[in-house]
Amino acid sequence: MKRSLLSVQASLVLLACACGGGGDLGGSGGAGGQASEGPSTSTTGAGGSPSTSATTSTGAGGSPSAGTTGAGGGLGPHVAEPSTPTRGGTMTFTNIGAPGWWPRRIDREPGDPACDYKDGNDTWGGHCCMTEHPTTSDRLAPFDEEMTLIMKAIRVKQLAVYQPGSDPAAWQMISSWDARSGVGSNLLVTQEQTTSADFTGDLTKTDCVTYFMQDKPFACGDGKDYYCPDDPGVMHLGWAGSKLVVFLASMTFDDAGVEKCSGDGQGHPGPWVAFVASELIRDGGRKWNGLCNCYSKTGTVGDGCGEINVFEVVMDNNDYSNREFMSTGVRSYQEGHIGGSVCGSGCDRDGLAEDVEVVDACAQKAYEKGPVIEAGGRSDGCPTWRRPIGDRYFMILLDEAQRTIQVAVIHPERIPSPAAEMLPDLPGRLSRGAIDAMLSMRLPE
């Protein structure tokens, strides 16, 4: 039986979402089209068949580890799994950043006047002291603070992080990883209690959440002004200020092959890529300490220290779920919730042309030009992504100068000219002109 979902508000905020299978504190909203009897649990479609590609040890020229210098030396091109070329897509979030505050956990005794936001209990019954932490910045704030990358249910081949260097005309690759070497450069990967620069790249075997940080330690002092969790795995620096994260990866795999992180039975197969405030994962529960973290000021939406669900496949067995589409949403104290539309159970990937990446969920059609979402302003419809088949370059670019967040999906065989300085070579240095060019992309064009 089908029923209409068109009356569902496109930016509806839910109290809980699928990120990692019900573990996140925020939700995706907005459903376009018609609901079917329920989200597909079959293994057909975008992630339907087991990938024919494995993590390769051959470089672009076929030789092992060819071009894999890493970080400041760049990575070099990587062989991509063949798939139908697509036109690519972007979502551009503008007017990002505003003065404000979020609740920060600190380590003070009960009754301490510094506990001016909360003086109570955390999720597990321990003491929770939180203070109001203000900022006067309007340049990306709070996303100008340290941020940590999170991934789940995805197969990665290359990953690079760029930031502005001492030369304002250039951005440098400061962190990287490549499947051909398997070892990160200024990049540590934490999964459960294991932290290492070594990484297989394949996160599709279990539904474990994986954290990516710099290898530099984070010094939090005595905890009185910044909480220090007893958790060495997350006590490393994220990336502060302007930053660009780009990775070559695939979301094509067999759902049935995903086990629970505990190894006990079927796991949650929904791919998830998030970029979150590093402070949020240092809450004493790696972001899941819902009663004592910086995620929300009100407890209902993510109006706190900042989280971006960069790419999220919602698979919660409800009308908002559809394994063939991805959502992108920005959450912080500035607006609470920007974007985050989903293409719900009524959306049909086969009803779209094969070269489509970005879709208006409310209008049930492909965009002819990449949508723009303005914080505090208008949005071009209800933008969502069609889940890719095969390898794509996935990108998130946060720029203080333009107060913009640019999210992109690019097919390796159709690299647009504004991204040509970066792809497929992933060099050790990018010009400021290349950054501005990518910020101006409105794919498809």
Protein topology:
Blueprint: E1 3-4, E2 34-35, E3 89-94, E4 100-106, E5 118-121, E6 127-135, E7 147-152, E8 155-164, E9 170-178, E10 188-191, E11 194-196, E12 210-213, E13 243-250, E14 272-277, H1 278-281, E15 307-312, E16 325-331, E17 338-339, E18 358-360, E19 365-366, E20 372-374, E21 383-386, E22 391-399, E23 404-410, E24 429-431, H2 432-439
Parallel strand pairs: 3-20
Antiparallel strand pairs: 1-2, 3-23, 4-6, 5-6, 7-12, 7-14, 8-9, 8-13, 9-24, 10-11, 10-12, 13-22, 14-15, 15-16, 16-17, 16-21, 18-19, 18-21, 22-23
Q: How would you explain this protein's 3D organization?
A:
By secondary structure, the chain is mainly β. Helices cover 3% and strands 28% of the residues. The strands form four sheets. Strands 7, 10, 11, 12, 14, 15, 16, 17, 18, 19 and 21 form an eleven-stranded antiparallel β-sheet that branches. Strand 16 (325-331) and strand 17 (338-339) form a beta hairpin.
- Major sheet summary line: 11 strands, antiparallel
Number of distinct beta strands: 24
Report the mean per-residue pLDDT as an integer: 87
- Rounded to an integer in angstroms, the radius of gyration calculated over CA atoms is 21 Å
Produce a short descriptive summary.
With 445 residues, the protein is mainly β. The chain has helices at residues 278-281, 432-439; strands spanning 3-4, 34-35, 89-94, 100-106, 118-121, 127-135, 147-152, 155-164, 170-178, 188-191, 194-196, 210-213, 243-250, 272-277, 307-312, 325-331, 338-339, 358-360, 365-366, 372-374, 383-386, 391-399, 404-410, 429-431.
